[in-house]
Amino acid sequence: MGLSKAKSRRRIHNRIRKKIQGTAARPRLAVFRSNKAIYCQLIDDLNGVTLAAASSLEKACKIEGNKVDQSKVVGKTLGERAKGKGIETVVFDRGGYLYHGRIKALAEGAREGGLNF
């Protein structure tokens, strides 16, 4: 029997994490997608600190519409929070998910919010 979907995603995520690392100057934009919500945070891996975060459960990000639209708003919110802290460039960590749908919408929203990656 093969790997479950979750285990397969974790293996892909670990493979991605070997190659990228966030710093204070260029943090890692980590994404987690559940069935109901999407979460993202900017992480400084050298110090082990989360610099900014956003999720679709927050009142600031709640909108009517489908999950792809919500993801775009979450990305834009995170981009604005990062700009407020002086962060402009990030490393994108898609978390083992395909760059498609909600993950792609979040990335596009973050770019609209002012982040470069």
Task: Tell me briefly what this model is.
With 117 residues, the chain is of the alpha+beta class.
Record keyword descriptors for this entry.
single chain, 117 residues, alpha+beta, Nucleotidyltransferase, domain 5, 4-stranded mixed β-sheet, 4 strands
Estimated structural class: alpha+beta
- End-to-end separation in angstroms reads 38 Å
Number of domains: 1
Q: Bin the helical content.
A: 25-40%
Proportion in β-strands: 15-25%
Main sheet? 4 strands, mixed
Q: Which consecutive residue ranges, at least 5 long each, have pLDDT under 50?
A: none
Strand order of the largest sheet: 3-2-1-4
Q: Roughly how many Å is the radius of gyration? A: 14 Å
Helix-strand sequence: HEEEHEH
Shape, principal axes of CA atoms = globular
